[in-house]
Amino acid sequence: MRHLQTKGAETVRRGLRNVEFSSSLLYLLVSERALIVERTQAGLKAAKERGAKLGRKPALSEDQRKHARELLDRGESPAADGKLLKVCRATIYNSLKE
């Protein structure tokens, strides 16, 4: 019986060490993630200050938007405009919202 109590206590001690290790590892990972976020935000801010344009490039240039607007004003359908400009109909609609 004494042997089982000793073995049980050893198992508890081993479990506590694993919990301590897991907690330390979790703290390290959370801290590293916070540093990554902080550095990313600082880099984005610096890029904006330099005047860099962030995000996806527009599908249509300003000239293409004007041309699409002229075609629509002449009675062309958005689908026909899209085929001409090699973009989908939804892109025509979205570019005219701006």
Summarize the structure.
The chain has 98 residues and is mainly α. The chain has helices at 2-50, 62-73, 78-85, 89-97.
> What is the general shape?
elongated
Question: Main beta sheet, described?
Answer: none
Proportion of residues in extended strands: under 5%
Mean pLDDT figure = 84
Distance between the termini: 80 Å
N-to-C SSE string, H for helix and E for strand: HHHH
C-alpha-based Rg, rounded: 30 Å
Determine the number of helices (DSSP H or I, runs of at least 4 residues).
4
In total, the number of strands is: 0
Integer count of domains? 2
Would you tell me the structural class of the helices and strands? mainly alpha
Low-confidence stretches: none
Give the % helix: over 70%
Describe this structure in words.
This protein has two domains: 1-54; 62-97. The chain is built from four helices and no strands. The longest helix has 49 residues, at 2-50. α2 packs antiparallel against α3 (78-85) and α3 packs across α4 (89-97). The chain is mainly alpha-helical.
